Amino acid sequence: MFQLLDDTSRLNAMGYEILLMGDFNGRCVGVCEHTGKNKLCSLPSYNGSRLLQFIDASQMIVANTMNCCTGHFTRILNNQRSAIDYVFLTKSLSENVSSVVIDDSGRFDLHSDHVLIRLTLICKPIVQKKTQNEKCVWKINDKTDWTLFQKKT
Q1: What is the pTM of this model?
Q2: pLDDT tier at 110 (50, 70, 90 boundaries)?
């Protein structure tokens, strides 16, 4: 867990967007009795407590608790239901999430005790803007690339 926290913090500081998804084998999300939406637990399991520490230290967002999330239970085996699979992502990446669907109704049979989690991101193209102060200096001679010159000026 410490290596993951270190890597996550380092990569995030370098400007990378991070998305972690999987079976984290800890309960740290429950259902709000007022809204019926997912929220972070006040009484997590032992591993859930460690996950909450990781979330706090790394400043990651739990997609399972976002308003656009439907469904709750990520592991269903006979009559046992639990939420132990999560999607963690950086705050800036979370702003591009349009939906999170946890298939706790069993619509998609994965032949597993875990259910499908689908996260939909709105991808925006990266546009690099030319700064106002950028200057181009050209040494014009018989080898000048006029096509490049026209693009740059």
Answers
A1: 0.75
A2: confident
Three-state DSSP class for 13?
Answer: helix
Upper half-sphere CA count for residue 25 (Cβ side, 13 Å): 1
Q: E-assigned strands of the chain? A: 19-23, 29-31, 38-40, 61-62, 69-70, 75-77, 80-82, 85-89, 97-102, 117-121
The model's pLDDT over 57-84, given as tens digits with 9 standing for 90+, comes to: 889 999 999 999 999 999 999 999 999 9
Closest by CA to 76, choosing from 40, 106, 38, 119, is 106
Looking at residue 130, what is its pLDDT?
59
pLDDT of residue 41: 87
Contact of 18 with 6, CB cutoff 8 Å: no
Q: In this structure, what DSSP letter does residue 114 have?
A: B
Q: Return the C-alpha torsion angle 143, 147, 151, 153, nearest 10.
A: 50
Element (H, E) at 52: helix 46-58
Q: Which two tokens stand for residue 72?
A: 């709750």
Residue 39's identity, in one-letter code, is K
Tokens 């689908």 found at: 118
